[in-house]
């Protein structure tokens, strides 16, 4: 008989209470801010040296979540964010760009937000909300998959996973032409466009143009700091940080600040260095100089995002709407550790032929550069690996929530939370209910849990210690339950074997407990199998 009864949270259909939590206004506005490929420790509230005063102000007025999990890639997270369900249920079991012939078209592997779920926009619109979106969609390219057809009254979106941040509209990689739509109609970006500024302008304009007194959902999905690393010239030289110290010193300084801030435990150590990524001391002086420049540009992008977040917050304050607005800030996954030549159908020759990657042009129009594995590991401090992996560096994200009725100011919680919880939380606080059917389809009930009791201060947790959260990505696997996490990482970054870590004290996943705790390991593996069966995981290739 098992010593531990495993109760997967995903096996219980969630019924969202329509009772407004004590202190939180009835039908509040929601401002949902998502940044793209930003690491856990980049911003100042989570120990970063990059100055982010606007994001810091959200944290100072609210609650920081240190155990908040997302998907390992852009569209996986976005499908869970807007559906409250697992990405394997919602249509993005794998990114559309990476679907294999064995996966494509199977339930949950459509490559877009499917009809087994409805979006947060649809539910809140049905509950009397105005719904706005600006920024990255990455949940389908066809007209019927557009935000305007998934519940958003107003939207200006980039449909693909990325593009130039400037007005040239060139593709991020080979055969990946960007498509922009406003309110479902194909359009182009204006002259002088810079992504973060423009999307902030759009979301402000949508809120300004609102003539009625309905509550609103404003979803601001920045495409920065996703590569290509681009930033306006005035930000390129406006820096106060020093990256000449190299990877190790910056990581150590971040970890020290994180401990002082209560982001990680005092026992936390830095993760092992990433296989195949050169260490700072192995780089030549010229290589180090280039690495320094890359991180300066990346940091400038993050600082620029913060500036535009500040503009949106200022609009809310000046209009008085802040008094009834819950603000949520998060990153969609870990920092990106791969260069642009590694994208599908691309390669270094294509990048060289189609880019102006002279050092003097880095960060400017025509350049195609990325921060790379060394700085991605720094951004993930103290975690292991980064985007596209199920190690903590790929799937643990900073989350900050503030607003009226949330009785926390600059506080931190280590309660386990998941991106699937955002939609159920908004739906519950709006007094709405997730439908059972839509357009003749029986819907899969959300798997996430409302966070309202924790946000109102009436509870200190969202998940019980025996409730599990699972992941799968390109045949790698992970499961978190209580303080323990089991992972299986395929080669070349892993050995294809299950490992178990106590991530409450070992967030860097250094001390494998699988041999010392065989029964726990067996339980976690079994729980992952239950998760995979429930959400319908399909491997990359058919079993032989």
From TrEMBL:
Keyword Cell membrane: no
Position of the signal peptide: 1-22
Source organism (scientific name): Halioglobus maricola
Family indicated by similarity: Belongs to the sulfatase family.
Phylogenetic lineage: Bacteria, Pseudomonadati, Pseudomonadota, Gammaproteobacteria, Cellvibrionales
Keywords: Calcium, Hydrolase, Metal-binding, Signal
Sulfatase N-terminal domain span: 28-432
Gene3D superfamilies given in the database record: 3.30.1120.10, Alkaline Phosphatase, subunit A (3.40.720.10)
GO molecular function: arylsulfatase activity; metal ion binding
KW Signal (keyword) present: yes
Highest taxon of source: Bacteria
Protein's name according to its UniProt entry: Arylsulfatase
InterPro entries linked to this entry: Alkaline_phosphatase_core_sf, Sulfatase, Sulfatase_CS, Sulfatase_N
């Amino acid at each position: 008989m098992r010593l531990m009864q495993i109760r997967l949270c995903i096996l219980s259909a969630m019924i969202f209470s329509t009772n407004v939590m004590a202190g939180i206004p009835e039908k509040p506005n929601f401002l949902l801010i998502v940044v793209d490929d930003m690491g856990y420790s980049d911003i100042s509230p989570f120990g970063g040296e990059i100055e982010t005063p606007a994001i810091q102000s959200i944290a100072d007025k609210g609650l920081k979540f240190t155990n908040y999990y997302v998907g390992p890639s852009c569209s996986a997270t976005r499908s869970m964010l807007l559906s409250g369900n697992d990405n394997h249920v919602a249509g993005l079991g794998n990114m559309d760009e990476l679907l294999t012939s064995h996966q494509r078209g199977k339930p949950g592997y459509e490559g877009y937000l499917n009809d087994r779920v409805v979006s947060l926009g649809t539910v809140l619109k049905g509950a009397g909300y105005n719904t706005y979106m600006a920024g990255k969609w990455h949940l389908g390219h066809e007209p019927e998959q557009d935000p305007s057809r998934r519940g958003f009254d107003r939207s200006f979106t980039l449909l693909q996973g990325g593009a130039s941040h400037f007005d040239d509209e060139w593709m991020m990689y080979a055969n990946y032409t960007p498509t922009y739509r406003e309110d479902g109609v194909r359009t182009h970006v204006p002259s002088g466009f810079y992504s973060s500024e423009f999307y902030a302008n759009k979301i402000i304009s949508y809120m300004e143009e609102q003539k009625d007194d309905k509550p609103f959902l404003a979803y601001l999905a920045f495409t920065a700091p996703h590569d290509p690393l681009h930033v306006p010239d005035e930000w390129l030289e406006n820096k106060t940080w020093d990256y000449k110290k190299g990877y190790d010193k910056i990581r150590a300084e971040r970890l020290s600040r994180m401990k002082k801030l209560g982001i990680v435990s005092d026992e936390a150590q830095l993760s092992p260095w990433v296989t195949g990524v050169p260490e700072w001391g192995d780089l030549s002086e010229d290589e180090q100089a280039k690495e320094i420049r890359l991180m300066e540009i990346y940091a400038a992008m993050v600082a620029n995002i913060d500036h535009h977040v500040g503009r949106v917050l200022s609009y809310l304050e000046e209009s008085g709407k802040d008094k009834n607005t819950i603000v949520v800030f998060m990153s969609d996954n870990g920092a990106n550790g791969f260069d642009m030549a590694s994208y599908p159908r691309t390669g270094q020759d294509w990048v060289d032929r189609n880019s102006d990657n002279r050092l003097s042009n880095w960060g400017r129009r025509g350049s195609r550069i990325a921060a790379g594995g060394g700085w991605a590991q720094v951004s993930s401090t103290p975690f292991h690996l980064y985007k596209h992996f199920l190690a903590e560096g790929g799937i643990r994200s900073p989350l900050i929530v503030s607003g009226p009725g949330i009785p926390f100011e600059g506080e931190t919680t280590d309660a386990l939370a998941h991106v699937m919880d955002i939609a159920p939380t908004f739906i519950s606080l709006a007094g709405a209910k997730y439908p059972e059917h839509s357009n003749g389809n029986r819907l899969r009930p959300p798997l996430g849990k409302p966070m309202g009791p924790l946000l109102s201060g009436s509870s200190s947790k969202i998940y019980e210690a025996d409730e599990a959260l699972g992941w799968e990505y390109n045949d790698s696997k992970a499961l978190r339950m209580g303080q323990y996490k089991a992972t299986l990482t395929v080669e070349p970054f892993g050995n294809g074997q299950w490992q178990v870590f106590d991530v409450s004290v070992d967030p860097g996943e250094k001390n494998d407990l699988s041999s010392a705790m065989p029964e726990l390991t067996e339980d976690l593996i079994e729980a992952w199998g239950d998760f995979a069966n429930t959400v319908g995981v399909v491997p990359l290739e058919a079993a032989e």
